[in-house]
Amino acid sequence: MKKREENLIGRCKRRDGQIRELEHRIEAMRVSHRGDMEGKIKHIQGAEEQLKKTEELLAARSEELSGTQTFLSTTDRLSEVEVLSIVRSLNESIYQVAVKLTEEWEKLESSKATGQMDVDPTSKPPVSVLDQLVRNRDPMGLTLLLQSCLCYLVVMMTSSWGPHQELAVLGSIYQRLSASGKHHFVDAGNM
Amino acid sequence: MEELANVFDITGSFPSTQHSFEFVQAVALEGIESIVRHTLRSELAFRVEVTSSDMTLLFETSGTKFDDARMSNDYGSNDACTLGRRDRIAGTTEVGVRKSIGGGPDQSRREEILLKAKVVLEKDVVEDGK
Questions:
Q1: Fewer CB atoms < 10 Å away: N or C end of chain A?
Q2: Residues B87-116, mean pLDDT to the nearest whole number
Q3: Are strands B89-94 and B71-72 parallel, antiparallel or unpaired?
């Protein structure tokens, strides 16, 4: 009976030893696995960053390519008739603003009790005929001067957006296309 | 808008440029935005959508001599006999369009007026002797 009890205790101790050994192994594996996982996570993060950079670069290059293709296109996308229609709309909007300003100014003038000027417009010499008309409070002169002023501002705006040195590359591409004679004009009838 | 305010300064109707500026802003802000939109649209057409030629807006400065090839005068008579006395332009009321083609190494640049700038002549707005 005692011998059986000792055998059982011995077996229990051996099992305890096996269990501890297994626990050590499991812990070692867990540590190893955690290390592997951290390494893989870092690898994935690195890959994701690389992918993001690549995608950004691709987007930038695609945009550049799209811009270049625009200038490499040898076919106009608008006919002369359509371009002139755009410019006529621009002129119409200039006229509308000039007329509206003149009308509102006339209302303001007519509502004044006296014709006295708030400031002396003759303090500076007139610079143009229209300038002189406006000094004389001529509504037609005012409309014409406003139109002229707006036309000038529009042209100044477009000049400031004009090609500069940084567009020299596109300029050279355009020169080559012009020289090759590959441009195709859009016929209004084909639009 | 400052330039437009300066025009109203000339009328003497406002006590200061700031008042003129506020008047222009109150009356024409939307219209000016519309002009800017149309200008941007024309630039897109000139620089991106039309690549076979260079197109630019045409504007004539006041005092320039009237040139029938580039300008049109819808405010008075274009009769040749009346032109020549006060045929200097008072201002441009509508911009035109100029087109340039060529300009390569072995090409001469050719210019064409697609739309004449509309101008008003001094003789049409000022009576003789004034």
A1: N
A2: 84
A3: unpaired
Q: Which residues of B touch A75 (CB under 8 A)?
A: 52
Q: Residue A78 and residue A58: Cα distance in Å, rounded? A: 30
Residue with structure tokens 């195709």?
A184
pLDDT band, very low/low/confident/very high, at B128 (cuts 50, 70, 90):
very low
Ranges of each domain in chain B: 1-51, 53-130
Instruction: Work out whether strand B96-101 and strand B110-115 pair parallel, antiparallel, or are unpaired.
Output: antiparallel
Amino acid letter for position B29: L
Token match 């008309």: residue?
Answer: A133
pTM of the predicted model as reported, rounded to 2 decimal places: 0.66
- What is the rounded distance in angstroms from the CA atom of residue A6 to the CA atom of residue B114? 116
Assess: ipTM above 0.90. no
CA proximity to B74, closest of A107, A29, A95, A127: A95
For B41, the token pair is 């649209």
> B93 and A93 in contact by Cβ < 8 A?
no
Closest chain B residue to A68 measured between Cα atoms?
A: B48
Chain B residues closer than 8 Å to A137 by CB: 11-13
Which is it for the CA torsion A131, A132, A135, A140, positive or negative? negative
Distance CA A75, CA A32 (A): 64
Summarised one tens digit per residue, pLDDT across range A68-104 is 766 666 677 888 899 999 999 999 999 999 999 999 9
How far apart, in whole angstroms, are the C-alpha atoms of residue A175 and residue A182?
11
Verify whether the Cβ–Cβ distance A121 to B107 is below 8 Å: no
Q: What is the mean pLDDT of chain B?
A: 82
